[in-house]
Specification:
Order of helices and strands: HHHHHHHHHHHEHEEEEEHHEEEE
Oligomer: single chain
Number of helices: 14
Strand order of the largest sheet: 1-8-4-10-2
Shape: elongated
Largest sheet: 5 strands, antiparallel
Length: about 500
């Protein structure tokens, strides 16, 4: 029989590497499955094992609760006798006795337990590896999303810095021109300056894009020429290399000076204004503005004057970037939004753009937004309109496109091209210019807080916040203009923090 001391229980736990009850369960299962097959025990040994099993399951033997035995039930009487011999042995000690006796009588029991333990350890290690791999994958995906957001913010900040530099160079020239067009009207002057600066920035970016494209084509041609030269004999390659070297040395001095002059000429505007007839032509045409302003020494003077005139008009305010993150409880979010009054669920048609106008609140200091979609992505961006809100209500507007550019009047264009219109042509030109300037003056300046990018908001909820830059209206734009056939269901929620 096994020892009744508590130390033996602790030894069994340390020796086998299992909790006592789990080890006993494994031992009893092994005995039950292999008895009479891989295990051949004597009648006496089987009685001892069954006695330990009864003591571990039911406790000490109790004559009052023992079942009555028949006269010829010899096996039942022997089992009860062996059970009575265990006395007041605890159940834990009976489990240990069963394990030790089975280990003594069966040499295959110990390898079986070792195999079970090894399999358990391998399973645990595999589970730990799987959890670590999932964690690494999740962290990598979060890093990639963060890098994309940071790259978008970096590009936006670079664009703003470039636009601010161009605005400082051209502000003084555009201001003089606007004062001649709208004398005594600072509001219309400011709108006209804003339009001219924006057009000048777009023209500069187009020229820069064409220049980079031409440089790429030149590099491609050089690579093709190098491949052709690789096929030539060595003597011809040497002759071509010497000629190219001489030509490069001859053009070094003139080439570097010409490139520097061209680069400076692209950023300068002249302070020389042509005649009055030329000033009243199309204000929205970028090429016409370049003919009006020309190119000369005025850029340097404009750069210095623009810094001192910031009190007259400064439409470009540096805004703090927004904070954007995601969370996984998308189904709960959709249920909460759908359970409301229904204002937070919108169906955006294919090719449409929905603008949610959210005015700033006098008691708030920060705006929060949350949105998600069903099954498909959606374009999302945030703009800020620098205008005093006329209402405190959140409104939704649907448009066919996200473009907010001003259009030139068709009558104005057709009149300037009509050679037989006579003196009426000049009057219609002036009237069209005044109408275009008045329409532009009614529009408040708009700043980009988050550029529009396509968001995979059908897997998780996109959440963000932004501190109020001032009094105005937030424009939350949900863009589905890139989808030709498919409409999108949008769930959104907007609130502010005091």
């Amino acid at each position: 029989m096994a020892s009744n001391s508590p130390a033996s229980v602790t030894t069994a736990l340390e020796k086998w590497g299992f909790p006592l009850q789990e080890l006993y369960r494994l031992a009893f299962t092994f005995y039950k499955q292999n008895s009479g097959k891989a295990i051949h025990l004597s009648y006496e040994d089987n009685l001892k094992l069954i006695a330990f099993k009864q003591q571990a399951s039911l406790g000490a033997f109790n004559t009052n609760h023992a079942p009555a035995l028949g006269v010829l039930d010899v096996i039942g009487r022997d089992r009860q006798q062996h059970w009575q011999l265990l006395g007041d042995m605890t159940r834990e000690q009976a489990m240990e006795g069963f394990i030790d006796l089975l280990d003594t009588m069966c040499s295959a029991f110990r390898p079986y337990i070792e195999a079970v333990r090894q399999n358990r350890d391998e399973t645990l290690k595999a589970e730990l590896r799987r959890m670590e791999l999932e964690k690494e994958t999740r962290q990598k995906r979060e890093r990639e999303q963060q890098e994309l957001l940071e790259e978008g913010y970096k590009e936006e900040m670079q664009r703003r810095q470039l636009q601010d530099a161009l605005n400082k160079q051209t502000y003084q020239q555009f201001k003089l021109y606007a004062e001649k067009q709208f004398p005594g009207n600072p509001e219309q002057q400011a709108v006209l300056i804003h339009q001219l600066q924006r057009e000048h920035y777009h023209q500069y970016m187009q020229q820069l894009h064409l220049q980079n494209q031409n440089q790429g084509e030149t590099r491609d041609k050089e690579k093709e020429k190098d491949k052709e030269q690789m096929k030539m004999p060595q003597q011809e390659q040497k002759e071509l290399a010497e000629k190219a070297k001489e030509k490069e040395q001859a053009n070094n001095n003139n080439g570097s000076l010409a490139e520097m002059a061209n680069a400076m000429e692209g950023l300068q505007l002249s302070d020389k204004f042509p005649q009055r007839e030329r000033e009243q032509e199309q204000l929205h045409d970028v090429e016409s503005m370049e003919h009006v302003l020309g190119s000369g020494e005025g850029a340097g003077e404009g750069g210095g004057g623009g810094g001192g005139s910031s009190e007259d008009y400064d439409d470009y305010v540096m805004i703090r970037p927004a904070k954007i993150w995601t969370r996984p409880d998308i189904q709960q979010f959709k249920t909460e939004v759908s359970a409301g009054d229904g204002d937070g669920v919108i169906t955006i048609g294919h090719g449409d753009t929905v603008t949610v106008r959210v005015p700033t609140n006098l008691n708030g200091k920060c705006i929060f937004w949350e949105f998600a979609t069903d099954n498909y992505d959606i374009g999302f961006g945030i703009y800020f309109e620098w205008a005093k809100p006329v209402t405190n209500e959140v409104t939704v507007h649907v448009s066919d496109s996200d473009e907010d550019e001003d259009c030139v009047d068709e009558d104005y264009l057709s009149t300037t091209e009509d050679l037989e219109s006579g003196s009426i042509s000049q009057d219609r030109i002036n009237l069209a210019a005044q109408n275009a300037a008045a329409a532009a003056a009614s529009k408040a300046p708009i700043s980009i807080i988050v550029p529009i990018y396509r968001r995979e908001c059908y897997n998780e909820v996109y959440v963000g916040s932004h501190s109020y830059p001032g009094e105005g209206v937030y424009l939350l734009k949900f863009d589905n203009s890139y989808s030709i056939w498919r409409s999108k269901t949008l769930y959104y929620r907007v609130y502010y923090e005091r």
